[in-house]
Amino acid sequence: MEKETIYILAIESSCDDTSAAVLANDKVISNIVATQKIHEEYGGVVPELASRAHQQNIVPVVHQALLKANIDKKQLSAIAFTRGPGLMGSLLVGTSFAKSLALGLNIPLIEVNHMQAHILAHFIADEDNRAPNFPFLAMTISGGHTQIVRVNDYFDMEILGETLDDAVGEAFDKSAKILGLPYPGGPLVDKYAQLGNPKKFPFPKPKVGGLNFSFSGLKTSILYFLQRETKANPDFIAENLNDICASIQYTIINILMDKLKKAVKETQIKQVAIGGGVSANSGIRIALKNAEKKYGWSSHIPKFEYCTDNAAMIGIVGYHKYKRNVFASQDVTAKARYIIQ
Fold first, then answer.
1. Residue 109: what are its φ and ψ, rounded to 5°?
2. 22: three-class secondary structure by DSSP
3. Is 336 helix (H, G, I), strand (E, B) or coil?
């Protein structure tokens, strides 16, 4: 007898992307993302504007996800949503919508930790995707987070190290802003870095104990370096943009890889996975593949569409929680700060 298909509608609204996805068991059958262009003119995400845009986007995005999946909302088994961490106003939009829809359809509600979802995105069934074996080390790198997590099982995770100040994505974006590049600047730093000399301008690496990270000092040293050089030559940035970007990226990737190597050495776990928006960066992908060859690691990198904020990763967590009957009540509230348990 065939098992009944579990259909999960997933909603992600933690920052400035409104996303909805439909999963049939562990397969993604639709994954719609509406990005918010309004923040570009401000050089960063404006929380109030983000929540307003989510309110405008959420109904059409969910409608598109169901339409593309070619299923009726009455076929849904459960609604999964991002409870946190993230911007409170943005989270409230997704949380309220998910609660209302689950109540209206009389189906279970599943709350999801956004950071856990970045890690479990590796378990989305895809012919190009090879899921890691437990236990594995996950390095989640994004605009708001930088963590190394020991993953023993789907819902047994332990944070081994995290950033003490800025996240790695923030370091990329703020460096880009200093260089006069538009927001979001991280992908542009990556683009120009591929054309430059990564060893042209050496930047200091912060000395941080254990498996923790720090990026604020690096950001300050980049700022002072550029102020000094442009004072001597006002065209310094324009004349050296590729080399500056390559040098910044090289330093940041070295910081990440040094900690990852230390984590592998300490835990003796050679299954390594990355996730989060910065895992779309070409430099970190190459560095991880090189480490795999050099140290005999088994490395796992998500597809580009599952790196940045998306509802498919919320849906895969929802699927595994559904199988365990782990549901949320209608009293559930959004959490701006939500630590992986």
1. -110, 135
2. strand
3. coil
Residue 314: which of 11, 77, 71 has the closest Cα?
11
Per-residue pLDDT tens digits for 52-111: 766 788 889 999 999 999 999 999 999 999 998 988 988 989 999 999 999 999 999 999
pTM of the model: 0.92
Give the separation between CA 137 and CA 273, rounded to whole angstroms: 6
**Residues written for the chain:** 341
Q: Which two tokens stand for residue 290?
A: 């090189």
Residue type, 300: H
Alpha-carbon gap, residue 16 to 37, rounded angstroms: 9
Structural domains of the chain, with CATH? 7-121+307-323 (3.30.420.40), 130-301 (3.30.420.40)
Q: Which residue has the tokens 């009389």?
A: 106
- Say which residue the tokens 């594995």 belong to: 136
Tell me whether the omega of the peptide bond preceding residue 206 falls within 30 degrees of 0, making it cis.
no
CA 71 to CA 63: how far, in whole Å?
A: 11
Mean pLDDT of the chain: 91
Separation in Å, CA 197 to CA 175, 200, 222, 264:
17, 6, 16, 29
Please state, as a whole number, how many other Cβ atoms lie within 10 Å of the Cβ of residue 224.
10
Closest to 171 (Cα-Cα) out of 198, 131, 203, 199: 203
Q: Angle 134-135-138 (CA atoms, 0-180°, nearest 5)?
A: 105
Which H helix or E strand runs over 153? strand 146-153
Alpha-carbon distances of 219 from 29, 39, 148, 230, 245, rounded to whole Å: 41, 22, 21, 17, 13
Sort 213 into a burial class: Cβ within 10 Å, 0-12 / 13-18 / 19+.
Answer: buried
- The SS3 call for residue 208 is coil
Q: Average the pLDDT over 25-35 and give the result.
A: 90
